[in-house]
# Entry
Amino acid sequence: MPGIASNRVTPPLYQRQAPTRPRSEAKRSRIIEAATQHFAEYGYHAARVGDIAIALGIAKGSIFQHFGSKDGLFFEVYKRSVRSFAKYLDAPAETRRAGFFEVLRYWLVRTEHLVHEDWIPYRISLLGNYGTDLVLKREINRFLISEDPYGTESFVRFGLERRELRRDMDIEMIVSILDWMMERFQDALLTAELDPGLFRRQGELAEKKEARMQQFLDVLQRAIGAVATDPVPSARPLARGDRRR
# Structure
């Protein structure tokens, strides 16, 4: 596995490329689209740049010219995929009015739609989070921290403004806890959705999924939620049927 023993001081080659010219942007986009499908189908390690080039009818060297390496190509695929997901505060207005933890519930209930509606970008995000080497994973982490593609910091500030979150905790800590816990829990929900018999008995998922989500929200609220003495603004409860990552 390349990169495990590396001790690079300078950024990887694919992070130090010259800006692309407008004429080549369309070609880059075509390559990224084809590579997205290929990585999603074969995974990161089994994917072959040569096969992507053959599918596009271009030279393999042309891909390296644009992206520097297989890592560089996957990194662009990953960024485009992750940017396609909704941000926390893209939840409906009535859900936002109901509060921080109702927004979390909204996205948890919609987790299974990542499989049915956004399977390819979600698969790419899983590969980036769990299926790449350490050097590439480090660059992915830098991207997630610097760009905040899910709008986690803005969402946390939303919760603080509503006095629903702890004010004695560093905001970066709250952001990190939310990112870690939501990512792992949604991945667990989707694993069970894709293969219900992998961890639990068949037929158990539908019956207990809602209870598990509520337990998760209870744990999260105890970790980062405002203490009982803090004033909390009143929120209009969701109408029946409003409730649904």
Summary: Confidence is low (pLDDT under 50) at residues 1-10, 197-202, 231-245.
